[in-house]
Amino acid sequence: MNLLKKIIFMLTIVLILSGCSSEGNQTDNPELTTWEDLLNYGKNKEVAILMWGGNDSVNKYMDGYVSKSVKEKYGITLKRIPMNASEFMNKLLNEKKAALNPGSADLVWINAENFRTAKNGGLLWGPFTDLLPNLNQYYDLQASDLNYDTGIPIEGYEAIWGRAQLVFTYDSKYVQEPPKSFQELMEWVKENPGKFTYPKLPDDFVGAAFIRTAYYELVGNNDAFLKDMNQEKFKELSKPVIDYFKEMNPYLWREGRAFPVSQAQQDELFKNGEIYMTMGFEIGKTAGLVKAGVYPETVQTYVFDTGTIGNSHYLAVPFNSPNKAAALLVIDFLQSPEAQIEKLKPEVWGDMPAFSTNKLETIMLSDLETVESDPAFISMEFLANRRLPEVQSKYIDWIKELWTEEVGG
Q1: Mind telling me which PROSITE patterns this protein's record contains (predicted)?
Q2: Exposure pattern of 295-324 as b/e (b: 16+ CB <10 Å)?
């Protein structure tokens, strides 16, 4: 009898421990199906975000306004880890190979070919976008870039963070009538040898977007880039673009024998007066630099009449994020109208919001109009009328290869 009691006692202990273990696993890896789940499991956690750290304005926005806001709102400690996309992609790939779970990151700043690689390689967790209230309330869910990232179906595996469009910056002290198309740019460059250049491909995102923009005007067939074609056909289509930039090379800064290695170096050349134009994706950055006295008041921004490439950037959750619920709380805050308008301010970041303006409440719309009233600022409506769609991600790779082989080499 005593033996039977001992056996029953031991079985009871095993069952209790099994129950505790199961409950613990559910707490560590909860099912996230509602906003309430995110609040229950996401508060008072640490969220590590891997993101490019090469822009001081972005870093200050994240380390200041965003970090303070999510701490006050949810008790979340935001840890920004500066890392280039190629580095964090390798990091996630290595963690996947090593079956490391939980991993070391909760969020990544991502888009285009990196998203394609991460999604196809099973490096992302999702789908999750239907859990985000700000996205569902303030965004146009039918918008192309909420469903496709450079032609890649998003399917809920990344959440839009912002939009961007290539804009040009010039000093009216030296450039009274800036060129309004690539054809005019060629004429201007030849009349002002050594005073224009663009960041080097394949590594610089801005330089690559500048070349992609040229395709729309010089090829003359806007629909071609939205269709599928093989690499040989694309190379044939690219001939007028490659010829254009080969012709331009001798009239560039350093006669085209060298290019700025980054947008930052391009901006520095502009600031020092070595070149008279620069370019970038932050639509309010120039206005902020004028306000800060970095650029003189003669510096202005514009876009070509023929349009410029516009694209979007996103946030995604790694497959092995240890704090997925907290990561989604941070994403939802970053998508809020308040956070989107804050990053639009020229003195903050100058990054274009991704929300739909016709869904904003009156007070938020008023805040947006206040930011856009800056005389050095280009309004979103003006840019939208001159926005060219992003090409498929595989074409971006091919353009970089062609430029490196034919132009930059």
Answers
A1: PROKAR_LIPOPROTEIN (PS51257)
A2: beeebbbbbbebbbbbbbbbbbbbbbbbbb
Query: pLDDT by residue (tens digit) across 134-159?
Result: 999 999 999 989 999 988 999 999 99
Q: Which residues pair with 316 in a beta bridge?
A: 108
| Rounded Cα–Cα distance for residues 118 and 68 (Å) | 30
Tell me: the pLDDT tens digits for 316-365?
A: 999 999 999 999 999 999 999 999 999 999 889 989 999 998 999 998 99
Sequence letter at residue 392: Q
Domain 165-310+388-406 has CATH 3.30.200.20: no
Render pLDDT for 15-73 as a digit per residue (tens, 0 to 9). 333 333 333 223 345 789 999 999 999 999 999 999 988 888 899 999 999 999 999 99
DSSP string, 91-151: HHHHHHHTT-SS-S-SEEEE-HHHHHHHHHTT-B----GGG-HHHHHHS-TTSGGGTEETT
Task: Tell me where in the chain the CATH 3.40.190.10 domain(s) lie.
Answer: 38-163+312-381, 165-310+388-406
Kindly indicate whether the domain formed by 38-163+312-381 is annotated with CATH number 3.40.190.10: yes
**What residue type is assigned to position 186 of the chain?**
M
Token pair 């030849």 in the structure block, residue: 190
Name the residue with tokens 């009349």: 191
Residue 356, phi-psi category: left (phi > 0), alpha (psi -120 to 50), beta (remainder):
beta
